[in-house]
Every structure is written in C-alpha cells, then in structure tokens.
Design a protein that fits this description.
Blueprint: H1 11-31, H2 34-56, H3 61-80, H4 84-106, H5 111-116, H6 124-151, H7 154-175, H8 177-182, H9 189-196
Helix pairs in contact: 1-2, 1-7, 2-3, 3-4, 4-6, 6-7
Length: 197
C-alpha cells in the first residue's frame, strides 16, 4: 500500500517565506519609522502565511503562533502609537515556545519532535535532548530581547532582530548537527531495497 508523501516546499522558497517578513520589517523601518514598519510587517506576515497555505496545504504551527502575536501586538502598537508593544513581541513569542516545549515534556509530549519529525529521524533520547536545548535557546532569546530593547535605540533593536537573532538561530541550529548524527535512526536495509525497487 502506497503512503502519500507530505508535500515539501523547496528549501529556498521556505527560507524566503520565513525570512521575508523580517526583511520587509527591516527595510520599512530604514525607509520610514517603526510604525510604518510594523504595519508592513503585519501585511508581510499575512502574505507569508497565505503562501504557505497555498504551497503546503497547511499552516505551520510556529509561524502561525508568531503571526498571531505579531498581529495582536502590532495592532496595539499602531492603535496606541506605542512601539513598546512590537518590541515585546519577540519576548512573548520565545517565552511561549519555551513554555510549550517544557510543559510538553512534562506531559510526555515532545513538541519539537511534532514540528520537525517529518524531516528528522532520531531516537527518543535524541528528541529529548533537542527539545531541552531549543527550550533553553528560546529563553535566552527572550532574555536577550528584553535586554536589547530596553538599552538601545529602536533602530538598533531592529538591527539586532535582523543581524543578531537570525545569525544566532542559524548558528544554534547548525550546532545541533552532532546530536542529529549521534542519535540518528538507521533505515533498515529492507526498507532501502524496497524504496529502490
């Protein structure tokens, strides 16, 4: 019996979809101000989710949560003309992700595995290590955001979001490769033979 494969988006397109709204936010802030950038960011997030839905026939959980917080706090920023709300967004999103991971682990559910399970095949022990590491990383990002937005200018904070958080996330992700290799589940030879046939 054939198993229907989940539709996979080209990694380059996926990167554009995920990073695109942040790029729009950065460019709009550079050309205008934080309020214009917030509005542009909100529109870009909606477009990004729409493209994901069209290409993959589903809405990824993490971008969906991020979009919800962006729309709520972006809306408050524009309505109240107070940039603090959009600056709090990364703190809240990262804290939510960290709490979800640790509460999930406490309840016997690994949400990192739920999100990444289709692309990565590792043992349960490996998934637990990854979950704890990602949970701690999200807490670090939340604390970093609080320190930065409270101590530098708005433009410097925007630069930190683009040129600080994104590289940190990429470096952290690559640093997990040894875990993926160490706890990888080898595909049985029979399965490989069947796939080749």
């Amino acid at each position: 019996m054939a198993v229907k494969a989940e539709k996979q988006t080209n990694p380059l397109i996926r990167l554009v979809i995920e990073v695109g709204p942040l790029a729009v936010f950065f460019i709009a802030n550079a050309r205008a101000d934080i309020f214009f950038a917030t509005g542009a960011f909100m529109v870009a997030i909606i477009i990004s989710l729409s493209v994901s839905l069209v290409l993959e026939r589903r809405l990824p959980v993490m971008p969906l949560v991020t979009a919800g917080v962006v729309l709520v706090f972006g809306g408050l920023t524009l309505i109240l003309q107070d940039e603090v709300f959009i600056k709090l967004k990364p703190t809240i999103v990262n804290t939510l992700f960290a709490m979800s991971i640790f509460v999930g682990l406490g309840l016997g559910r690994n949400f990192v595995q739920v999100v990444m399970g289709a692309a990565v095949k590792i043992t349960d022990e490996g998934w637990k290590i990854l979950a704890v590491r990602w949970g701690v990383f999200f807490i670090v990002l939340a604390v970093l955001n609080e320190i930065v937005w409270r101590s530098v200018s708005t433009d410097a904070w925007v630069n930190f979001k683009v040129f600080g958080v994104l590289p940190l996330t990429l470096i952290f992700s690559f640093a997990q490769v040894p875990v993926l290799m160490r706890y990888a589940i080898e595909e049985p030879e029979e399965a490989k033979t069947t796939l080749q046939e």
